[in-house]
Amino acid sequence: MTEEKLGSHAEGSNAESTILVGSKNVMSYVLACKTLFDKGAQEVVIRARGRLISRAVDVAEITRNRFMPDLIVKDITIGTTTVQTDKGSELNVSTIDIVLARQ
Length: 103
Known about the structure:
The chain is of the alpha+beta class. Helix content is 27%, strand content 47%. The chain is built from two helices and five strands; from the N terminus they run E-E-H-E-H-E-E. The chain has a five-stranded mixed sheet, with helices on one face. Helix 1 crosses helix 2. The protein is elongated.
């Protein structure tokens, strides 16, 4: 259940950047977020699930409060996804998407 990915994908006509929070330390994701904004992204989506949701919130808050005070939380989306365990059973896991945007 550890997903770590930094990348971007196009959605509609707007390019969107997404950070998938995993088991790295918080500052790795803060740096990734700042890098995407420095490269010109207008919005960055911080995505996490399960126990890593609190880490995603930390990433958003540290990025906004320490490094980029001009950012706003544009949207927060919560949900549930089904994950198959190693034993073959299905498990519901909570998810969160936090969208940070420049003002």
